[in-house]
Amino acid sequence: MAPELMDYLFDGPAASAAPVVAPPPAVPAPHARTVARRVGDALVESRLAGMGDAGVRASLARTLCRLLPDLPPGGAETVSTVAIRALEQLARDHIVRVREALATSIKDVACAPPAVVATLARDVERSVAEPVLRCCAALSDEDLLDIVANAPAGWALSAIARRHRVAASLSEAIAETGDAAATGVLLDNSGAVIAERTLESLVEEAAHHPDWQEKLARRPALPRRLAVRLADFVDLTVVEALRRRPDFDAATVADIAACTRRRIDWAEDAAQETETPERRAVRLHRQGKLDETALGDALSWNETGFVRAALTLRARVAPDVVDLILDAHDATAVTALVWRAGLSMRCAMQIQARVAAINPRAMLNARQGSGFPLSPAAMARHLERYGVRS
To answer: What angle do CA 112, 116, 122 make, to 5 degrees?
Structure first.
């Protein structure tokens, strides 16, 4: 079929108003002639049936997607060009049903035209974009990173997180959006590569997201130090999942078991003692045992009264000021208070999440995994706003 005739069939009479003189085409191979005839037949049938009908355009989209893997190069380049032009126009069709038909047909085609899948992936309709975001191998990581960077809807992030393969840079971008549901999907996806620094950040945030905890405990290739860190605050069911992992050596399992035993002992001691959590904090402070381990055990049992008393004693700040800072949901002030108490930034993140009830998106995160993100002078100045002097 002559190129000008195929243009006419797809674009309408206006496209061929001026006469077009085409050079004599090379004689294609038998397979190329067959594919060219099938593309031409599809366009002819669509034209004759009436391209104004959405059902016809949807049928054309499905047909062209089936032919994509067989489009020949070389002498049949014109046929490929016309088919791709048709797909690009269908990807911008004003009828959702047409775009849906194209998206569901092209999502499994590895050789799909990049411009077509990029358009469909950015479609505002979930029924169009989601299949492409989730399945289409022709969609590049660059396109996916650009989509994530433009703050898409949660369903779009979750669709990307479910892909058969998710690169480390893409996993990091999804985690940094703060979308809890998409991050949970990512943690469940064994095909997602999650860098250690991203996993470390997620472990720290998991105190505020209980549904992440078991997913992290079952995560393939979870580093030993993160497993032990996770065992410090998750519930005992998750700790058991950590202990049963076959990829941990005896030393790691022993460390996790020690965390479990220590936390059980903490709860049993609290049940046997008649003292309040606040008085227990005073006693441990006098014994020199009011350390970060004690606060971690208290946090694992949600003993917020103990934590407030511990901060009062260690930071040498009045109890009402500690309450004011923790109840203000001020992430910077909470971090500064923990710093003044001589505790780590990891402890500050736990207290932000579990005692101050700060929203995950508003939390102040560690610098390079464990460091305080502000200078000592900046934190001291922030505490002065609450009347705390150096």
So the answer is: 125
pLDDT 10s digits, 17-54: 333 334 444 444 445 555 555 555 555 455 544 455 78
Contact between residue 179 and residue 173 where contact means Cβ atoms under 8 Å apart: no
Q: For residue range 301-310, list pLDDT tens digits in order.
A: 888 999 999 9
Angle, helix 114-121 to helix 96-106, in steps of 10 degrees: 120
Residue 85 CA: distances (Å) to CA of 11, 89, 176, 291: 10, 6, 37, 68
CA atoms of 348 and 52, how far apart (whole Å): 62
pLDDT digits (tens, 9 = 90+) for 225-240: 888 888 777 776 787 7
- For the chain, what's the residue count? 390
Buried b (16+ CB within 10 A) or exposed e, 149-182: eeebeeebbbbbbbbeebeebbbbbbbebebbeb
Report yes or no on whether pTM surpasses 0.85: no
Helix (H, G, I), strand (E, B) or coil at 289: coil
DSSP code per residue over 132-145: HHHH-TTS-HHHHH
Give the residue among 130, 196, 192, 142 at the shortest CA–CA distance from 167.
192
* 3-state SS, residue 108: coil
| pLDDT confidence tier of residue 313, bands split at 50, 70 and 90 | very high
Q: Which residue intervals of 206-318 are DSSP H helices?
A: 210-217, 224-231, 236-243, 250-272, 277-286, 292-300, 304-315
- Cα 59–Cα 65–Cα 68 angle in degrees, nearest 5: 145
Amino acid identity of residue 147, one-letter, is I
- Angle at CA 151, nearest 5°, toward 148 and 154? 85
Phi, psi dihedrals of residue 166, rounded to the nearest 5°:
-125, 120
Mean residue pLDDT across the chain: 82
Is the separation of the CB atoms in 248 and 239 below 8 Å? Answer: no
The whole-number pLDDT of residue 273 equals: 67
